[in-house]
Amino acid sequence: MNKSTELLRRMKSNDLVIGTHVNLADLSIAEQMGVLGFDFVWIEGEHSPLDKQTILGHIIAARAGGAASFVRIPWNDPVLAKPILEMGPDGIIFPFIRTADEARAAVAACRYPPKGIRGFGPRRANSYGTQPAAEYLEGVDASFLRIMQIEHIDAVNNLAEILAVDGVDTIVVGPNDLSGSIGLLGQTRHPDVMALMDKIGEVCAAAKVPFGVSMGVDEVSLADWVRRGAAWIGAGNDVGYIAQAGSDAIKLIKSLA
What is the pTM of this model? Predict the structure, then answer.
Protein backbone atom coordinates (compact mmCIF):
# COMPACT_ATOMS: atom_id res chain seq x y z
CA MET A 1 0.00 0.00 0.00
CA ASN A 2 3.02 2.31 0.18
CA LYS A 3 5.33 4.20 -2.16
CA SER A 4 8.25 4.67 0.22
CA THR A 5 10.69 2.24 -1.40
CA GLU A 6 10.29 3.80 -4.82
CA LEU A 7 10.53 7.35 -3.45
CA LEU A 8 13.72 6.55 -1.53
CA ARG A 9 15.22 4.95 -4.64
CA ARG A 10 14.45 8.10 -6.61
CA MET A 11 15.85 10.35 -3.89
CA LYS A 12 19.12 8.42 -3.93
CA SER A 13 19.38 8.45 -7.74
CA ASN A 14 19.03 12.23 -8.24
CA ASP A 15 15.49 11.96 -9.60
CA LEU A 16 13.95 15.01 -7.93
CA VAL A 17 10.82 14.19 -5.92
CA ILE A 18 8.27 17.02 -5.78
CA GLY A 19 5.45 17.50 -3.32
CA THR A 20 3.26 20.09 -1.65
CA HIS A 21 1.62 20.78 1.71
CA VAL A 22 -1.99 20.31 2.78
CA ASN A 23 -3.43 22.24 5.72
CA LEU A 24 -7.16 22.34 4.95
CA ALA A 25 -9.65 19.64 5.91
CA ASP A 26 -11.32 18.92 2.56
CA LEU A 27 -10.00 15.49 1.56
CA SER A 28 -10.39 16.18 -2.14
CA ILE A 29 -7.43 18.58 -1.86
CA ALA A 30 -4.98 15.74 -1.18
CA GLU A 31 -6.48 13.70 -4.00
CA GLN A 32 -6.32 16.65 -6.38
CA MET A 33 -2.65 17.28 -5.61
CA GLY A 34 -1.92 13.70 -6.60
CA VAL A 35 -3.97 14.01 -9.77
CA LEU A 36 -2.05 17.18 -10.66
CA GLY A 37 1.17 15.17 -10.54
CA PHE A 38 2.77 15.88 -7.18
CA ASP A 39 4.81 12.91 -6.01
CA PHE A 40 3.83 13.35 -2.39
CA VAL A 41 1.44 15.29 -0.19
CA TRP A 42 2.81 16.66 3.10
CA ILE A 43 -0.12 16.41 5.52
CA GLU A 44 0.38 19.10 8.12
CA GLY A 45 -0.21 17.88 11.65
CA GLU A 46 1.91 20.45 13.48
CA HIS A 47 0.61 23.86 12.43
CA SER A 48 -2.87 22.99 11.17
CA PRO A 49 -6.15 22.12 12.93
CA LEU A 50 -6.32 18.69 11.28
CA ASP A 51 -7.43 15.92 13.63
CA LYS A 52 -6.46 12.25 13.37
CA GLN A 53 -9.56 11.22 11.44
CA THR A 54 -8.95 13.94 8.85
CA ILE A 55 -5.28 13.00 8.56
CA LEU A 56 -6.31 9.41 7.86
CA GLY A 57 -8.68 10.67 5.19
CA HIS A 58 -5.92 12.69 3.56
CA ILE A 59 -3.60 9.66 3.53
CA ILE A 60 -6.26 7.61 1.75
CA ALA A 61 -7.14 10.49 -0.61
CA ALA A 62 -3.50 11.08 -1.55
CA ARG A 63 -3.17 7.43 -2.53
CA ALA A 64 -6.38 7.66 -4.58
CA GLY A 65 -4.82 10.56 -6.48
CA GLY A 66 -1.57 8.67 -7.03
CA ALA A 67 0.59 10.55 -4.52
CA ALA A 68 2.52 9.38 -1.50
CA SER A 69 1.63 10.75 1.93
CA PHE A 70 4.02 12.27 4.45
CA VAL A 71 2.58 13.27 7.83
CA ARG A 72 4.30 15.78 10.09
CA ILE A 73 3.41 15.16 13.70
CA PRO A 74 3.41 18.01 16.27
CA TRP A 75 6.45 16.83 18.26
CA ASN A 76 8.98 14.05 18.65
CA ASP A 77 6.75 11.97 20.93
CA PRO A 78 5.96 8.24 20.54
CA VAL A 79 2.42 8.85 21.76
CA LEU A 80 1.84 11.21 18.84
CA ALA A 81 3.64 9.00 16.33
CA LYS A 82 1.86 5.74 17.16
CA PRO A 83 -1.66 6.44 15.80
CA ILE A 84 -0.23 8.04 12.67
CA LEU A 85 1.94 4.99 11.97
CA GLU A 86 -1.12 2.74 12.26
CA MET A 87 -2.69 4.75 9.41
CA GLY A 88 0.00 3.54 7.00
CA PRO A 89 1.50 6.78 5.66
CA ASP A 90 4.45 6.65 3.28
CA GLY A 91 6.51 8.84 5.60
CA ILE A 92 6.42 10.36 9.06
CA ILE A 93 8.15 13.66 9.81
CA PHE A 94 9.54 14.38 13.25
CA PRO A 95 9.95 18.13 13.79
CA PHE A 96 12.71 20.02 15.58
CA ILE A 97 15.27 17.22 15.78
CA ARG A 98 18.44 18.70 17.25
CA THR A 99 20.62 15.77 18.36
CA ALA A 100 21.45 12.18 17.48
CA ASP A 101 19.74 11.05 20.68
CA GLU A 102 16.53 12.77 19.61
CA ALA A 103 16.79 11.09 16.22
CA ARG A 104 17.30 7.72 17.89
CA ALA A 105 14.18 8.31 20.00
CA ALA A 106 12.18 9.12 16.86
CA VAL A 107 13.36 5.97 15.12
CA ALA A 108 12.60 3.88 18.23
CA ALA A 109 9.02 5.18 18.16
CA CYS A 110 8.73 3.75 14.63
CA ARG A 111 10.17 0.29 15.33
CA TYR A 112 8.77 -2.69 17.18
CA PRO A 113 10.75 -4.41 19.95
CA PRO A 114 13.52 -5.36 20.24
CA LYS A 115 14.67 -2.57 17.90
CA GLY A 116 12.27 0.02 19.27
CA ILE A 117 9.31 0.78 21.51
CA ARG A 118 6.36 0.86 19.12
CA GLY A 119 3.32 -0.97 20.43
CA PHE A 120 1.70 -3.49 18.10
CA GLY A 121 -1.68 -2.48 16.74
CA PRO A 122 -1.54 -1.78 13.01
CA ARG A 123 -4.78 -0.99 11.25
CA ARG A 124 -4.48 0.36 7.72
CA ALA A 125 -0.71 -0.17 8.00
CA ASN A 126 -1.11 -3.94 7.51
CA SER A 127 -3.98 -3.73 5.05
CA TYR A 128 -6.62 -3.84 7.79
CA GLY A 129 -5.32 -7.13 9.15
CA THR A 130 -5.35 -8.99 5.85
CA GLN A 131 -1.55 -9.10 5.67
CA PRO A 132 -0.07 -11.95 7.73
CA ALA A 133 1.69 -10.64 10.83
CA ALA A 134 5.01 -12.30 9.97
CA GLU A 135 4.97 -10.81 6.49
CA TYR A 136 4.05 -7.39 7.83
CA LEU A 137 6.80 -7.42 10.46
CA GLU A 138 9.40 -8.51 7.91
CA GLY A 139 8.72 -5.52 5.67
CA VAL A 140 7.51 -2.85 8.07
CA ASP A 141 10.82 -0.97 8.36
CA ALA A 142 10.84 -0.34 4.62
CA SER A 143 7.14 0.48 4.39
CA PHE A 144 7.51 4.14 5.34
CA LEU A 145 10.21 6.79 5.53
CA ARG A 146 11.50 8.10 8.84
CA ILE A 147 12.14 11.78 8.21
CA MET A 148 13.94 14.08 10.65
CA GLN A 149 13.30 17.81 10.33
CA ILE A 150 16.37 20.02 10.66
CA GLU A 151 15.28 23.48 11.77
CA HIS A 152 17.71 24.62 14.47
CA ILE A 153 21.36 25.62 14.58
CA ASP A 154 22.01 22.77 17.02
CA ALA A 155 20.79 20.30 14.41
CA VAL A 156 23.18 21.70 11.82
CA ASN A 157 26.07 21.43 14.27
CA ASN A 158 25.09 17.81 15.05
CA LEU A 159 24.02 16.86 11.55
CA ALA A 160 26.71 14.27 10.81
CA GLU A 161 25.78 12.37 13.98
CA ILE A 162 22.06 12.62 13.22
CA LEU A 163 22.56 11.23 9.71
CA ALA A 164 24.56 8.33 11.12
CA VAL A 165 21.63 7.11 13.25
CA ASP A 166 20.38 3.75 12.01
CA GLY A 167 16.86 4.12 10.69
CA VAL A 168 17.05 7.75 9.58
CA ASP A 169 16.05 7.58 5.92
CA THR A 170 16.20 11.26 5.03
CA ILE A 171 16.06 14.72 6.55
CA VAL A 172 14.09 17.82 5.64
CA VAL A 173 15.12 21.43 6.21
CA GLY A 174 12.78 23.99 7.73
CA PRO A 175 14.32 27.29 6.57
CA ASN A 176 12.15 29.67 8.62
CA ASP A 177 12.69 28.07 12.01
CA LEU A 178 16.34 27.53 11.14
CA SER A 179 16.72 31.26 10.53
CA GLY A 180 14.85 31.96 13.77
CA SER A 181 17.27 29.81 15.76
CA ILE A 182 20.05 32.32 15.04
CA GLY A 183 17.90 35.41 15.61
CA LEU A 184 17.02 36.02 11.95
CA LEU A 185 13.46 34.69 11.73
CA GLY A 186 12.15 34.81 8.17
CA GLN A 187 15.43 36.11 6.76
CA THR A 188 16.14 32.92 4.86
CA ARG A 189 18.37 34.68 2.33
CA HIS A 190 20.58 36.31 4.95
CA PRO A 191 24.21 35.27 4.34
CA ASP A 192 24.45 33.56 7.74
CA VAL A 193 21.33 31.49 7.07
CA MET A 194 22.45 30.70 3.52
CA ALA A 195 25.76 29.43 4.91
CA LEU A 196 23.92 27.06 7.26
CA MET A 197 21.78 25.72 4.43
CA ASP A 198 24.84 25.25 2.22
CA LYS A 199 26.48 23.32 5.05
CA ILE A 200 23.46 21.01 5.30
CA GLY A 201 23.81 20.15 1.63
CA GLU A 202 27.52 19.48 2.02
CA VAL A 203 27.15 17.26 5.10
CA CYS A 204 24.33 15.24 3.51
CA ALA A 205 26.36 14.77 0.34
CA ALA A 206 29.33 13.51 2.36
CA ALA A 207 27.10 11.09 4.29
CA LYS A 208 25.23 10.04 1.13
CA VAL A 209 21.89 10.67 2.82
CA PRO A 210 19.21 12.37 0.69
CA PHE A 211 17.71 15.57 2.02
CA GLY A 212 14.65 17.66 1.27
CA VAL A 213 13.28 21.09 2.02
CA SER A 214 9.88 22.44 3.02
CA MET A 215 9.27 25.88 1.53
CA GLY A 216 7.10 28.16 -0.57
CA VAL A 217 7.21 28.62 -4.32
CA ASP A 218 10.04 31.04 -5.00
CA GLU A 219 12.15 30.59 -8.13
CA VAL A 220 15.40 31.96 -6.71
CA SER A 221 15.23 29.91 -3.51
CA LEU A 222 14.12 26.79 -5.38
CA ALA A 223 17.14 27.16 -7.66
CA ASP A 224 19.38 27.40 -4.61
CA TRP A 225 18.02 24.14 -3.20
CA VAL A 226 18.46 22.36 -6.51
CA ARG A 227 22.05 23.65 -6.55
CA ARG A 228 22.59 22.33 -3.03
CA GLY A 229 21.51 18.89 -4.18
CA ALA A 230 18.06 18.59 -2.60
CA ALA A 231 16.60 15.18 -3.44
CA TRP A 232 13.05 16.23 -2.65
CA ILE A 233 11.15 19.49 -2.34
CA GLY A 234 7.84 20.24 -0.66
CA ALA A 235 6.79 23.52 -2.27
CA GLY A 236 3.77 25.68 -1.56
CA ASN A 237 0.51 24.73 0.11
CA ASP A 238 -3.22 24.69 -0.42
CA VAL A 239 -3.83 27.92 1.50
CA GLY A 240 -1.15 29.74 -0.48
CA TYR A 241 -2.37 28.44 -3.84
CA ILE A 242 -5.89 29.68 -3.12
CA ALA A 243 -4.60 33.06 -1.94
CA GLN A 244 -2.38 33.49 -5.00
CA ALA A 245 -4.99 32.42 -7.54
CA GLY A 246 -7.70 34.53 -5.88
CA SER A 247 -5.46 37.59 -5.73
CA ASP A 248 -4.46 37.15 -9.38
CA ALA A 249 -8.11 36.87 -10.43
CA ILE A 250 -9.05 40.08 -8.59
CA LYS A 251 -6.14 41.96 -10.17
CA LEU A 252 -7.05 40.69 -13.63
CA ILE A 253 -10.71 41.64 -13.34
CA LYS A 254 -9.89 45.08 -11.97
CA SER A 255 -7.44 45.68 -14.80
CA LEU A 256 -10.25 45.10 -17.29
CA ALA A 257 -12.73 47.41 -15.59
Answer: 0.97
